[in-house]
């Protein structure tokens, strides 16, 4: 039974092959956290009473030492002095709540979360616990959705005002897990523009720690994701508890180690500045948080998340299909292009086997630099005398697909749109409007603004007969506020912005169901599960340097599979670092994502163009393994000097191994690196003709001959032999 209730122990249990999650009712009324981890058939009474000896129905809330109990839905203002998962302010200004179990049900599928992105619910099962605060009439529905096929548990909450007075929600996180003990190492991702998602691993310490965003996006600086690692956990072994949020705005991922050395982990919308007015009859839903228990190290966590993302987060015809090899003109031309230049880039790329030409920023309004025109999605007829439509015709006539960059959420003060609607930007009354990259953010909380965005963007995509869209977002939100929200609702601004964005994304993607969408936010500034529900790939970083990308893609792969990661070969010296890396290394790194180029082929040598052609053929032949195989991390660039990873097909008959070396060292002995994921019973042929036993590759390793020059790489394509007969 995946979801069950044991009358004797008063425990709900959610179980699948990978884990159990157990909730115990204290005094029949308060849901306490009893277990999350390796599957257990039942939790013994003695174990339960250690946590919560309060089984007697006569206990009342004011007798429970809530401060020391592991809870499923804690609120501050009771005898629990820690930060809680939920908070409200009643009409009289007080904040106390007495949430008691009212009922429960299980059902097939997942809860409705109106306006929010969430995982596909087919085959899932949900346990819903209803808690009620009798005095105010507020109900809280705690949702636990079991995705047994992926080893993932989703949590969310719905707060319903079934009382008679207006209530204000001041805190609405998606989940709380009260772990017993604090002997974990805490993993979060942190960074900055062009340095996204550095792995940060530290021991938990008493008090609060975590990662958060208050920028209006999930941000370059952090990720709505955290993991707790047992002391012995590593890439391949030990217990790992991963938690990720399906949301693209302000978030909080926190761990609070209390007086007893227990750890409260919470994930959800950041409470700072947040409030939500709930009139009688209204309800509020939190985004979904996904919980993954892995007994087999970080690799086990990633394997489960990758499978989950591929099967339940990314959707549409492109989700599991081969992706086009693209060329994007941004680093090739920046704003300095005209139709002839674009066509020459496209034609040269087509010669090498590229499928898709993407026209980046600068095609609209009078946008010759980043000072103007966002919001004016009309063709620049000086650069493109035949308009988008004429360019698209010519690109299609080359036998290529046509892609377009847009930044729909933005407005330049120097734009016709801003001159016509000066109050359409996000602003706080008469306070100065901080510009970033000379632009402001459109107020997506307003219906008329959303309609105008949808119409102007859809018109451009239609006019250009566009096959691919790069949806960019290049600044954070400051002076948050909307001219259309009443004062008592201004605390809703950030979340309403996200709901507005999700509304636009669902409308635009529904209008163009066959178009491939890639999200972007100054690179990886909004790289989260929420965006991935609408767009199956995302530009991983504006940093295209191959060595830097090893780090960024390595850490991104903790949560996301290669099919989500936009990765391009760019020119050298690299535009972000000035570093020179071999073409082969740049390609090998880009191959572990959705492959493309970001350069001007006119500046390549003939042998580089020939190399491009053979690389494109190789990508096409191996893309199924590279994008949709199991991605395994072998050497961490965060721990040593080199980086290695491999992709293995589901039947384990094909694999791609890649190793990138940092600085060359003289007189190096050939290395030996153990591979993973292969079938020990099979023999594998490398493209150079050598044949190794799967068993020896797994137990002895693959010999790595030294490469000369800095940032050299080795890439091997392994095929089991004899090959299967067609
Ligand atoms: C952002 C993107 C880049 C490029 C520029 C265009 O920085 O991340 O890839 O599209 O905008 O202005």
Question: How does the SSE layout of this entry go?
Answer:
Blueprint: E1 3-6, E2 11-15, E3 20-26, E4 30-37, H1 45-51, E5 86-89, E6 99-108, E7 125-133, E8 138-147, E9 152-161, E10 167-179, E11 185-190, E12 198-203, E13 207-213, E14 225-229, E15 240-245, E16 251-257, E17 263-269, E18 276-278, E19 283-285, E20 289-294, H2 297-313, E21 326-328, H3 330-333, H4 339-351, E22 356-359, H5 387-397, E23 401-406, E24 410-411, H6 416-420, E25 440-441, H7 447-463, E26 468-471, H8 493-511, E27 516-519, H9 529-532, E28 537-539, H10 546-556, E29 565-570, H11 583-590, E30 594-598, H12 606-628, E31 630-635, E32 643-648, E33 654-660, E34 671-673, E35 683-685, E36 691-693, H13 694-699, E37 702-704, E38 713-721
Parallel strand pairs: 21-22, 21-30, 22-23, 23-26, 26-27, 27-28, 28-29, 29-30
Antiparallel strand pairs: 1-2, 2-3, 3-4, 5-10, 6-7, 7-8, 8-9, 9-19, 9-20, 10-17, 10-18, 11-12, 11-14, 13-16, 14-15, 15-20, 16-17, 24-25, 31-32, 32-33, 33-38, 34-37, 35-36, 35-38
The structure holds alpha-D-galactopyranose.
